[in-house]
């Protein structure tokens, strides 16, 4: 079942303790759609400028991503510049240039409006609402957001959240959004805002899924070399939503598999700069790491041990 | 198989955002032995002062803990005073009074020297070594330590670690001990110091076990109310070591169960002040929470899902 994503496509300049890259492919919708494309057809709605390299367009096309909603406008592409210390969990933003993204007003191609699975990347909540005004009866609407919108456009965000089924946030964001320090209470508060499912991303500590009567915990894969955490959250969401969309249902068994698949994809993304690790990633590698997650977390229940 | 613990028995004064307790039962060996006593006979070696309430001794006795190595010396009992903010992961120490603990020289009763399972609580590494000088061919020696010893008595600690099979540390401690920021590399560095097994405790984020070719991740139980994290790490170690000792072996299936049981016991300990939640804890409650951990972490492998 087709999966629609609306968000940013960007050129990133990133510095980590392990190296530096200038103007490489980035953006929430880019990471998301690339990760999701390993599982399910993806339709991308975003904007780039005249300077956006054609090679990047070709890369997305080669991954089978629908680009009818990717418009090229006069001006420069959105740029983000960030830096990470050894504490790789949090980026320091050095510069943001919205450029063509400043006037982004997502317009869905007719053929995309019936997408049953929708992911609203981390953009202004009013733009997220505009997307929802255009889609026709989606099965599942997921969204990402950040401190900037939680603080600055809270009313608009709360309005959007009423129409969202699943929210991706990190620890700090859910605390800020809910006003609750305790994560369990914070998730319950978010349920009352609309989303009946909340995924709390905790970087190197993994992710938690909260449904009303059901919690699932997935660790992050313990990696020896994390080169660049940029896009890990969107890659997680891409693996997650791609898994749901291809299954076409979201019972607990599928939701749990989606959590693990999100973690699998994120674990690859951070191994190299930009989307480089996803470029040559193969299905057997994905399956192998999924099995490694099983090995990482599996234990016998008490009955089996006592037998 | 009997389990020996050497460490501190203390009177704690603790303040958290949820309340305040003065001079309640505490200490690494107290939390450890109480937790372990749910699984296996425990022999405690520690020192208290003349002011140590007899009711606490009776509590430990009622839990079946061997107290032949608990000596009462002239002077006051070891006292610790700490405070937690909403970020419950780290305590701020307000005051430490060593008192009788200052001259503690652990002397093992003859009957304790053959203990196959040994836990060296967080005390001076030279005292830890003195304990190991007295035991006769233990099957497994586990130890805890902290930043104070890693910084201040590094040489003595490295000498002790050569004789330790399993080390319990937290994130910050393993980074400090190894000089590696990455946890996987840090664990590998600790393996070369002696311990072939390392458990990294990460508070609300759970715990990781590193063996040479094997990693296991266990989340912390998502609790709505964490009242007092004091002793969570030692309670974890108690549940862990009690589980190993009662199994009498440490193949991966048992080690994994021990990790989960450690997490189960720690999840109870933090629900109330001091050891209060462990006082009325029952085996059915322990088994129920173990099952809840299974539910929290379980997912089907891909083959099962595709079937």
From TrEMBL, chains A, B:
**Family annotation (Pfam families):** PfkB (PF00294)
- Does this entry carry the keyword Kinase? yes
Is Transferase set as a keyword in this record? Answer: yes
Q: Name one GO molecular function term.
A: kinase activity
- Write the record's keywords in alphabetical order, separated by commas: Kinase, Transferase
Q: Which residues form the Carbohydrate kinase PfkB domain?
A: 26-272
Q: What is this protein called?
A: Ribokinase
Q: Species name for this entry?
A: Hyalangium minutum
């Amino acid at each position: 079942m087709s999966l629609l994503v609306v968000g940013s496509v960007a050129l990133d300049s990133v510095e980590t303790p392990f190296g530096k890259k200038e103007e490489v492919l980035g953006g929430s919708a880019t990471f998301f759609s690339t990760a999701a494309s390993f599982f399910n057809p993806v339709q991308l709605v975003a904007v780039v400028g005249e300077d956006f390299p054609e090679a990047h367009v070709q890369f997305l096309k080669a991954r089978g991503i629908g680009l009818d909603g990717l418009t090229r406008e006069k001006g420069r592409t959105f740029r983000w510049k960030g830096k990470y210390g050894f504490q790789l969990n949090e980026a320091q933003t050095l510069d943001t240039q919205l450029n063509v993204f400043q006037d982004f007003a997502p317009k869905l191609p007719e053929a995309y409006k019936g997408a049953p699975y929708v992911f609203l990347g981390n953009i202004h909540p009013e733009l997220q609402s505009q997307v929802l005004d255009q889609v026709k009866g989606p099965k599942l609407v997921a969204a990402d957001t950040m401190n900037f919108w939680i603080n600055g456009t809270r009313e608009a965000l709360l309005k959007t959240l009423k129409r969202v089924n699943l929210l991706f946030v990190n620890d700090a964001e859910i605390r800020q959004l809910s006003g609750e320090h305790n994560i369990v209470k914070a998730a319950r508060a978010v349920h009352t805002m609309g989303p009946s499912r909340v995924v709390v991303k905790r970087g190197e500590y993994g992710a938690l899924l909260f449904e009303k009567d059901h919690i699932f915990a997935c660790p992050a894969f313990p990696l020896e070399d994390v080169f660049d955490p940029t896009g890990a959250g969107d890659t997680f969401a891409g693996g997650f939503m791609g898994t749901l969309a291809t299954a076409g249902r979201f019972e607990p068994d599928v939701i749990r598999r989606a959590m693990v698949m999100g973690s699998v994809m994120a674990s690859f993304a951070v191994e190299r700069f930009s989307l480089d690790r996803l470029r040559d990633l193969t299905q057997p590698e994905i399956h192998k790491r999924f099995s490694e997650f099983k090995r990482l977390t599996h234990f016998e229940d008490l009955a089996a041990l006592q037998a």
